Amino acid sequence: MKSVPGKPLFAPALRRPGFGLARTFVNAIAFCGIMIWLSSCSVSKYIPEGEYLYRGAAVNIEAPEGVDVAELTTEVNATLNNNTNNKNFILGYYQIWRWYRWQEKAAEKPEKYEDKDPKGTAPIFYNEALVESVNTLMENRASNNGYFNNEADFTLDTLTDPPEISADYTLTVGRPYTIDSLRRFWTDSSVSRIVEASLAEKTLLKRGARYDLDLIKAERQRWETQLRNAGYYYARADDFVFLADTVGGDHQVNMLLKLKDDTPPSHLYPQRISAINVYPNVNPRDTTRRFLADTVKIGGLNVLCDDCPLRPKIVDEAFAQESGDLYSPVEHDKTLRRLVNYNTFRYISMSYDPLPGTDSLLTLNATMQPRLQRRFEGEFGLTYNNARYFGPNVHLAYINRNLLKGAELLRLEGDFSYAISSGSDVRVPRSGIYGLTATLEVPRLWMPKRRKIIPRVMTSGTVISLGGKMENLSLRLSGFSSEIATNQLDELSAQVEEDPDAMESISLIQLSGKFGYTWRRRIAKSHALYPINIRFQDPRVSTPQLLDLARELGVAPGAENGASRFDRMIVFSPNYILTYDDRKKGLKTHNLFWQQSVAMSFNTIFPVGTQAEFLDSERSIYPQLETDLRYYLTFNKRQQFAARLHVGAAVPITERAIVPYFDLYSIGGPNSLRGFSPRELGPGRSAPQGANLLSSGGYGNVIFETSFEFRQRLNSMIEIAPFFDAGNIWTYKTETEPLNTDFTTSTFLDELAFDAGLGFRFDLQFLILRVDIAKPLRVPYEDPLSDQVPPYQDAGEVPDKSLRFVLAFGYPF
């Protein structure tokens, strides 16, 4: 039997268009109906006689014409969703059925189930008192929002199979009351001065505004914050009372603001710190040893400690407060963050105790328990990637959290990986990577006169890093016979003739050193400055002709003198990173994350290969800017919209940008365009190269990518998120002559790749497991080959637009 190319061997029988789909749809509807009926019937037999499952309620608000009750509707609906049974659209009351089945099994075999947690969900039965309490609660919500003239009523809707009840509420309200006047009566002049200043600066209560109890509570909380910032440690929002008079006026409220008559005297005085006692090495449950320890006085602190983990001078630098200062929550938070930033203590407690015999003095007692100073970590894994590379990888680390008793964090990390191709292509090299990195992080600035800088920052640090890595690639020379012959590489040609299985290795040695500072002045904003950042790369081979071969394979098509992975270079690139994340101040309706990095790179490239002695070195200078912007719109606890924009570019000041491959951008993967594998796109409309570690395909010095997600939480464990991704990478002025892969505004939109899909997130408490199913929608290199950039020799064929399965941990952004 013969088959015709491009046609299936057996053709399916012809069917009317849409007939199979319609039939499948009808079957699915019927199946769902049967499942609901079966689930309902199976639950009905367990329901006690006279009881009804409570299905919850709906509310209708009746208001005079022109009255906006949207905000009231939201608040009232929030009272209805509690204490109701959850009925699944397909499975009905399946969780309740599971609960009854578990109870039956536990009754039959109590010894087997006595130590197990019940399965399913216990039923919630209709309770007349519960429904009436919700009725009262809705009236209270209306009054709290200024609708003092209100009345709520309800009717019940009953079903018999399964027995269930739902309630329909009607809330009738009149016009809301507005604030007509705000009068104050103070019995304490110092408190009055602070509160009046707060009212004059910014108040939430304004004449003519609708009466709103939540705003009143927020205003009281604002006063508490102002007083505590002024040193009133005991000040509380409950010390203030708002009296409302609705007798006069037309739907207007006259308000009186005053201190409660029974406010404790200590709440009316600012508190001053008389002494600071620090216990850096105690067990929290040991209340006797701490008072027997040696005492060291330094900078207004009493450091009481035996075998102290930190030098007293280092402890003193962490404390923003001094003896004699007024209490300040800002300084308290700054001290706490500095101690946490030391990364030395597992337990930190700061308590303010009243000094006996006074009503305005406090003693600050700070208690800490050290963490284990040294730790070893190890990881072993097997890696398989889209390039069909497979092999083991090992990561080992030694961590010392307190190297010189100054909270210095030392990390010594070693990495080893070995990978071979699982395919049959003899042109794919084997790879072995060996790396060692030493990083020292000091939680303070190593610079002259740092004592003058400390009060201005919340936390600060110094980072020193040294690293080395060797990447070894093993090549079977016979796989590159055509390139060897074309470039007249006689030594390599002779090796192939002598031994068809001859192997050669290229070793790429990389050394790096970095020195810089990190600091934070505000909770949401952090800075990192690395004035020294040097990378050096040097290829090692047995014969210079091997580097000629590597350059021939690794230089991008169309580039006459392009950059290669195997160039000898030294890169000096000082950089600055600004990070703003207002989520650290708490989740709000609108949250923003912004990370901006700016680097100035000076790259010197030295010639390699057989012509090295006849060529001059080349210098490339280019600033590199990268922006990562993320926006989060939170509708409620279950719904959130998230968007991300990631752009970056290395723009040359010199004739061209020679960017080392470790500073280039790539796109695709679980945290990028999820419908594409890493390095499957770009630059521009280039077709992806095959699995070849020698190549520089899939890299560019310009990137644009954006993602959108709508996150819907189904329950405490599962979240779904439909998403859309778009982006690509390009080259820009990497050669003296323009390339087809260069970024241009005229072709920007046409060269964007699109994908969309659905994500599932599983909250396992200790981590987020993410499963994304993505489908490529548009592939830039899908055009006819005549309209593409000429493909590489080992480029892929027709782009695959099938569904992609992505397994990852954590959110993509």
Question: What's a quick, concise take on this entry?
Answer:
With 813 residues, this protein is α+β, with helices and mostly antiparallel strands. 19% of the residues lie in helices and 37% in strands.
Q: How would you describe this protein?
A:
This protein has 813 residues and is of the alpha+beta class. It folds into five domains: 23-173, no CATH class; 178-268, membrane protein fhac (Ubiquitin-like (UB roll)), CATH 3.10.20; 272-370, Ubiquitin-like (UB roll) (Roll), CATH 3.10.20.310; 372-549, no CATH class; 555-813, Porin, CATH 2.40.160. It is 19% helix and 37% strand. It has a 17-stranded antiparallel sheet that branches. Strands 8-9-7-11-10 form a five-stranded mixed sheet, with helices on one face. Strands 1-3-2 form a three-stranded mixed sheet. β2 (150-160) and β3 form a beta hairpin. The longest helix has 26 residues, at 19-44. The protein is globular. It is found in: Membrane. This is BamA/TamA family outer membrane protein. It comes from Neolewinella aurantiaca. Keywords: Cell outer membrane, Membrane, Signal, Transmembrane.
Layout: helices, strands, pairs:
Blueprint: H1 19-44, E1 53-62, H2 70-78, H3 94-108, H4 110-113, H5 128-144, E2 150-160, E3 163-173, E4 178-185, H6 189-201, H7 213-229, E5 240-245, E6 252-259, E7 272-279, E8 295-298, E9 301-304, H8 312-318, H9 329-341, E10 345-354, E11 361-370, E12 374-384, E13 389-400, E14 409-421, E15 430-442, H10 450-453, E16 459-476, H11 481-486, H12 490-498, E17 503-522, E18 525-540, H13 544-554, E19 568-572, E20 575-581, E21 590-606, E22 618-634, E23 639-650, E24 702-713, E25 718-730, E26 753-763, E27 768-778, E28 804-809
